[in-house]
Amino acid sequence: MHALNVLATESIKNRDLWYPTILGVLVVIASVALFCGTIYIVLATNLGARLGFLVATAGLAGLMVLLSLLWLTNPSPVNTLKGRIPAWKAVEAIDSGDVARSKIPAVQQINETGRDVPLEESANVKAAVDTNLIINNNIQTGEILAGSEGKYAVYEDATKYLITNTRVTGGGEIFSQVDVSFGDGFPWVHVSLHEPTYVVITTCKTDPALSATEVPFGGKPPTPKCADDQRQVLVMERDLGSLRVPPFVVFLASSILLALTLLAMHWRERDLQEAAAKVAGEAEAITKAAADRDTETV
Fold this sequence. Notes:
By secondary structure, this protein is α+β, with helices and mostly antiparallel strands. The protein has two domains: 2-80 and 246-297, no CATH class; 87-211 and 222-240, no CATH class. The chain has helices at residues 2-13, 17-47, 49-73, 105-108, 110-113, 119-133, 208-212, 245-297; strands at residues 87-94, 115-116, 161-170, 179-182, 189-192, 197-205, 232-239. Strands 1-7-6-3-2 form a five-stranded antiparallel sheet. The longest helix is centred in the last third of the chain and has 53 residues, at 245-297. The chain is elongated.
């Protein structure tokens, strides 16, 4: 009763506790019990508890193998198990605009080794820059909605700054670099089998005088210009994501479970065959002994 009172109190304080947290857990438990439990009961009444469990587990594992293969081969795994999508992640900001002060060696040499951002990727870079540099807070909750938890957000909107230069460096063939590091929770291990790709964006504040200039009807608005020579640099690293990792983990785990259940049923069948052969041998020996006694009697 006390647990129910505590749960009711927490539900009132936190409106999201019942939906989707508690309701989601209850739906998962009910679906597993109905989907797997009913099939197991039917098999157990016909095959026995142990063999029915093995058959039901093998069937479920085989179904998960097929589903995970579909998830792996689907071009865009919608409504399936999926990981992070590829994106640009802000890792550093340099207020002085001098890339030589960067902590990343590849960024320090970007003026010599860098290249222009491909046209097809420029829109994604601009969107990532807006997400990280524009201050975006939820008015009601105060939650920071900007990228990197608002760590690099300094502008009120996209009209307050200009992008003066964009350069990209890094990237390369697989196995060119192996970076193994342990994540926050063991045993998760993040393995990087590529050379990191960095994009360096140089920005400046726009001249507020131009924004305040009145434009006559039908006239051309003034071209935005930098307010001063001060520049800010934002460094972003390409996160290749882990879109196919969860389906692959499910496929691997389901394949192991399927192999173990099939092996267990194979061992059980061999044991039954050996037991039947032993019983048949004993029966044959008894029959032969009886025949020998009859022969001696005659």
